[in-house]
Amino acid sequence: MTGPTAARVKTRSIYAVVALTVALITPFLVSSSAGSPAAEASPPPPHAGFDYQIGGGYPPPAGVSVVSRDREDSPAPGLYTICYVNAFQVQPDELDAWEPDLLLRDDNGDVIIDEEWDEAILDVSTPGKRERIAAKVNGWIDGCAENGFQAVEPDNYDSYERSQGRFGSSAAMAFITLLSGHAHDKGLAIGQKNTADLAEFRDETGLDFAVVEECGEFDECDSFTEHFGDDVIVIEYTAKGLATACAGWQDSLSIVRRDLDVVPAGADGYLRQTC
Asked: What's the rounded Cα separation, in Å, for the pair 222 and 210?
């Protein structure tokens, strides 16, 4: 075939090949951008009614539109629900679920424990160990997405401060970046938990918002708002902390006071207050 008709057929064939090539390589381009938020991963709405229910879910109080619950709990129906994951440390009853070499150890070979919560610290000191730990934690993140959560809250980002010098902030950042890339691939936003010293790196680590305990109590809320703007959720545990947070940010941030054990409503010790 020759002439204009043949040229048009050839052009259409070239376009078809280009389109097919783009279709084939696009998924790989998207999945390779660890830490880059997917279009559907939206952080919680700022300055929203918030309840911290990681100690057990219960019907949210009136006015609440954002809730954080443990990964083994269910999302709050009709509300934006954040999935709490203990990503850098191990719950006391889950030690046997981890390979022994993934638990951080001291010079004597003893597991290093966060004494405040009786939790073993995970060893994210090397790329190989980070990949292996992330494989398990990302499995939990998969469960969060499958169960209908909208975001994930990986706890103990600041565990390097309790690592006895065996890994530092750069290792923690490298690990959280693995989690953020996976969360975004699953359509989940991901929050930075505490760790004011690393808030300035939120773009490099792919973190979308912050969940901050006691920034009013310790006068560091502005360390988070400087880098996250109004995308900051504040949990206080004392009257003083709540008063300070409310005085400075009640018109812009989500703020709640809970009891330290964050027990469900109706349980002994339950406390919840807002501005």
From this structure: 12
Distances (CA, A) of 127 to 130, 158, 172, 211: 5, 18, 11, 26
Could you read off the pLDDT of 177-221 as tens digits, one per residue? 999 999 999 999 999 999 999 999 999 999 999 999 999 999 999
Element (H, E) at 70: strand 66-70
**CA dist list (Å): 115 to 89, 108, 118, 119, 122:** 12, 18, 5, 7, 14
Do the beta carbons of residue 64 and residue 52 sit within 8 Å?
Answer: no
pLDDT at 123 over 80: yes
58 burial (CB, 10 Å; 0-12 / 13-18 / 19+) is middle
Element housing 257 (H / E)? strand 254-258
147 CA to centre of own chain = 16
The whole-number average pLDDT for the span 232-255 is 98
DSSP assignment string, 121-162: EB--SSHHHHHHHHHHHHHHHHHHHHHT-SEEEEE-GGGGGG
Residues 95, 112: contact at Cβ < 8 Å? no
How far, in Å, are 6, 110, 162, 177 from residue 170 at the CA level? 59, 24, 14, 11
Ordered strands of the 113-114 beta sheet = 89-90, 119-121, 113-114
pLDDT at 38: 44
Confidence of residue 115 (pLDDT cuts 50, 70, 90): very high
